[in-house]
């Protein structure tokens, strides 16, 4: 797992003025390696608003914390002064995963129990390289994708991606869907697997770039947009694999994808995504694509007089640019959006059902009259445990410890 993606700040609470450097500050940081939330306490002096110093601070010592530690207090130099194992300090959201029996839309999928997956590597946030033995005893290397975060938006995205992938027709430029993953106690849907492609992504600047891959990518985007009514919304070098067997380009990571008008973000337009991606691959310039999607501009790239090539290509840069310009002109012609909204073969699936777990009421403060306030809906993991609800826990040791144990250290 790339270290720069490991920690994500989940917000901070300030117990006083943010102008006062002594104000107590509590920051929640999600660790994609250990799959747990850790609270980092300090002051505004160390953790000023909007600077995400808490992630950098936790990164120094996260691998050395006991899994029983929920909160860490640091001094103004970022050094640990106190740790807490009090469960009340935990800020992890509970996830009410849908029982497989209640997900009728998935009953045509093959399934695999979570305990049958052997972790081989951690490829990125929410994606592991794993292995299982199929019904014939044949080992299968797969990419296991999962969502361990209980925020409603992330649960919706996971549901949409799973259904979209299992609904896609077989295509030479798409990574094949494999199985639905179920946890072992109550057979709840916790993720899915896809075929593992070992060729690496186009982020690898040492990989020569072929003109035919641009042709394949544009044809694939046309197929997704205009035949299926699907927008990927996250086309980027990191999401483009090269199959070492076929030498074809493969698009994956559909967690931002949408169908029709559902959650379409015009700033994530696939046509612009292709142009910006090819520009980044050829030039190595990440200045534009590292900006927010709101300010990325395909026209800026297309209007450049010259693309400085910093990668081995099998054709002149002008050939790539000419092809892209012609394709963009065609896609921007009148009727393109109508074709997208009226595609002949759009996949369909039901909305994410409400988990029965969230109908269980829990205490949430008091009313104006001082009586206990009972509510339903999303809750903290500690609250669900107090209610006796089944909680699937993702927590695991840091990858650095696993490597040491494998090396006999």
From TrEMBL:
It catalyses: L-threonyl-[protein] + ATP = O-phospho-L-threonyl-[protein] + ADP + H(+); L-seryl-[protein] + ATP = O-phospho-L-seryl-[protein] + ADP + H(+). Residues 117-409 form the Protein kinase domain. Its EC number is 2.7.11.1. Signal peptide: none annotated. GO terms for molecular function: ATP binding; protein serine/threonine kinase activity. InterPro entries: Kinase-like_dom_sf (IPR011009), Prot_kinase_dom (IPR000719), Tyr_kinase_AS (IPR008266). Component of the EKC/KEOPS complex composed of at least BUD32, CGI121, GON7, KAE1 and PCC1; the whole complex dimerizes. Component of the EKC/KEOPS complex that is required for the formation of a threonylcarbamoyl group on adenosine at position 37 (t(6)A37) in tRNAs that read codons beginning with adenine. The complex is probably involved in the transfer of the threonylcarbamoyl moiety of threonylcarbamoyl-AMP (TC-AMP) to the N6 group of A37. BUD32 has ATPase activity in the context of the EKC/KEOPS complex and likely plays a supporting role to the catalytic subunit KAE1. The EKC/KEOPS complex also promotes both telomere uncapping and telomere elongation. This is EKC/KEOPS complex subunit BUD32. The lineage of its organism: Eukaryota, Fungi, Dikarya, Ascomycota, Pezizomycotina.
